[in-house]
Amino acid sequence: MQLTPTDPQHDFSIRPLDGLDDLLECRKAKASVLKVLRHPGVPPKLFLTGPPGSGKTSLIRAGVQFIACQRPQGLKPCGVCPGCVAFRSTNYGRMTGLHSDFAYWDAGRPLDYLVINCRNASVAEIEDHLQGIRHRTHALRVIHLEEAASLYRDRRDERLTEFMDDHDFNTCRWLATGVTDQELDEQFRRRWGLMVTTTPPSIDDLADRLAIQCRELGIEVDSPDTWTFLAEASWCVVGRAMSVISTALMEVPPRLTRGLVEDHPFPLTDPWKMEFFRR
Fold it and tell me: Could you give all domains of the chain from N- to C-terminal order, each with its CATH number?
């Protein structure tokens, strides 16, 4: 989900502000992200699927920020060390470019985070950006393929398979996100050792999180039941629920109402029950 704030103090993305444990549910996916990022030597490759807005990209970005942090508190980045400051300065919560990368160099602890939007990137563009980090083997290299299921177009996944098998990229942390992986070439799919999917929070958990968010942003609510109604209407997809919160913030005064929820174009069927989400 990409939302543009009207006030810089408001963060409308679903990127967690306090680290991995600020995300709702997604326990298996959360553990898998950390397994890849922390794995010594040649790590497994992670392909993360789930409905749009379910937190796939947020999980990966939170994991990378956790790794960048010099003084994490449990699973929360401290937010004040040079690593956290450098990561926030990239404005990753609202990254919209075709390619974006984060390079953080602490004494003896380098980190490269390369994001490639596969929906828009050509084979040549992907190659150029991967070649840029080819020989930086002294760094922790994290390669994040966004919208990876679109790679089947123009046989771009075949070229990426060659990079994955290249010795220089063995120690890279390969992570990919997509609604599904089913459109990918079978040879490319076999490269991913970890295939996980996001899971929905409970209605009550999401309603509680929405209530906290409204209080933090100064959004009034017509009834406490509206938070539960919003959780149900959004099918517990956090990004979709947060898009209504951002709309409520635009009201004068900021106000969340049942009518606002009813007017939002939510999907008619439960996205979590689509066949390719049941692994």
Answer: 20-197 (3.40.50.300), 203-275 (1.10.8)
- Select, from the ranges 25-34, 37-46, 184-193, 259-268, the one with the highest average predicted confidence (pLDDT): 259-268
Question: What residue type is assigned to position 207 of the chain?
Answer: A
Q: What is the pLDDT of residue 104?
A: 59
Contacts for 157 with CB less than 8 Å, ≥ 6 apart: 151, 184, 185, 188
Residue type, 64: V
Q: Count of residues for the chain?
A: 279
Question: In angstroms, what CA-CA distances link 115 with 61, 112, 132?
Answer: 10, 10, 13
50-86: pLDDT as tens digits: 888 888 888 898 888 888 888 888 878 888 888 887 7
Element holding 57 (H helix, E strand): helix 56-68
Please state the pTM of the whole predicted model. 0.83
CA neighbor of 129 nearest in space, from 165, 99, 152, 150: 99
Average the pLDDT over each of 151-155, 243-247, 260-264 and give the range with the smallest value: 151-155
Return d(Cα 120, Cα 98) in angstroms, integer: 7
| Other Cβ atoms closer than 10 A to 44 | 14
User: How does pLDDT run across 176-216, given as a tens digit for each residue?
Assistant: 999 887 777 888 888 898 988 888 889 999 999 999 989 99
Alpha-carbon torsion angle 142, 146, 152, 155, nearest 10: -50
For the chain, report the end-to-end CA distance as a whole number of angstroms.
24
For residues 14 and 238, the answer to whether their CB atoms sit within 8 Å is: yes
